[in-house]
Amino acid sequence: MTTPFPTGALTDLHTKVETGERLNEAEALAMLESRDLNALGAIASLARARKAGNRATFIVNRYINYSNYCILSCQFCSFARKKRDGDGFELTIDEIVTKAKEALKLGVTELHIVGGLHPSLPYSYYTDMLRTLKALDPQPHLKCFTAVEILHLGRLTRKSTGEILAELRDAGLDSLTGGGAEIFAPDIRPQIAKGKETAEEWASVHRTWHELGGRSTCTMLFGHVESLTDRIDHLRRLRELQDETGGFTGFIPLPFQPENNPVPVEHPPSGFDILRTIAVSRAYLDNIDHVTAYWVGLGLPLAQVALSYGADDLHGTIEEEHIFHMAGANSPQAQTTAAMVQAIREAGRVPVERNTFYEPIREWVGDAKTSNPTPPNLLEDNLATA
Ligand code: SF4
User: Fold this and answer.
1) Residue from 72, 81, 149, 189 to probe ligand 1 pocket by mutation (most atoms less than 8 Å from CB)
2) Of 62, 122, 227, 235, which has the highest C-beta tally within 10 A?
């Protein structure tokens, strides 16, 4: 796929990315402030092709929220409930197993499990949940808990983050989710997530998990009250942590959803804002291999377009999503494999079903489906897409 060559102020940045030189924060901010979306796409496409060739991935997974009761009241959150509310929920382990069994019939390779900071569930609930799911079937990858849930369990048990993570790993935890990062800027974070863990605490949980040999994803919630400079600050902190640990598998930018929460923002970020943020993320985060266009927040049509603006992944089939939909997302609850494949093909990319670590499981070439894909030959793909 050919891409237009940027002109003007972005030409030097195009050259830098083309030669594999790292962008600094001022350059990333200049990109984010640009209105030349096609030029941003051209720069991001260079970075994307270097990492992913012409492939674009998705995972067959299922979300399970075990509860939406939470002791915190983050302003941006439309998901959490208090025990006094009439519409909160908490699942028994048997109910979680029932959902997992249904998902296994659909061929999921990952169960993605998060919840609020529950006021009273005992620590054994979390370890029993992991052990029970592993006993049910050891194959699906258990990607569970955000950093703040780990800190909550530490406070509950008076154990260190390292002890909690090691115990959860021994019970069956395979990787951590990237949620809860929100926006790191210390003056903005309390405006949308008062009382939540600090940026340093979020990083500390992921650092500890990476030191234990685990891997995780990372996120950024954007399009609320933060500035463009705050977004670059957030990306800088992620890139620095990745330089240190190398434990992040992918980055998932999350567009803010404004319904049913008190953050004084009327609309979710525009398509232009979403695409430029994905493009700059791809160009700047040179040490994170994958950038996801999260279709739940973008809608599949815009996520598909984002495959030409730096994204190389559409996330998962999901089956049941609460957090974004309770905040007003009007995307469907699930995507089929066929819809993912079609969206990727139409965008001119080669569809690949991946596992949690973005390793290929199945690749679609032409009309044929290959069950043993060849590992990506990035050099050849780069030449093919240049
Ligand atoms: S974002 Fe998470 S921690 Fe904050 S209120 Fe919602 S569920 Fe609780």
Assistant:
1) 72
2) 235
Tokens of 176: 């951590």
pLDDT tens digits for range 115-127: 999 999 999 999 9
Domains identified in the chain and CATH numbers: 8-385 (3.20.20.70)
Burial 111-143 (b: 16+ CB within 10 A, else e): bbbbbbbbeebeeebbbebbebbbeeeeebbbb
Query: 73 C-alpha to center of ligand 1: Å?
Result: 6
- Residue 336: per-residue pLDDT: 94
**pLDDT score recorded for residue 4:** 55
Average pLDDT (346-360) is 97
Burial of residue 92, with CB atoms counted within 10 A of its CB: 0-12 exposed, 13-18 middle, 19 or more buried: exposed
pLDDT of residue 159: 98
pLDDT band at 30 (very low <50, low <70, confident <90, very high): very high
Q: Return phi, psi of residue 161, to 5°.
A: -60, -40
Instruction: Please state the atom number of ligand 1 nearest to the C-alpha of residue 148.
Output: 3
Cβ 275 vs Cβ 41: under 8 Å: yes
Q: Which residues contact 94 (CB under 8 A, 6 or more apart)?
A: none
Q: How far is it, in rounded angstroms, from Cα 22 to Cα 287?
A: 9
User: pLDDT band for position 320 (50/70/90)?
Assistant: confident
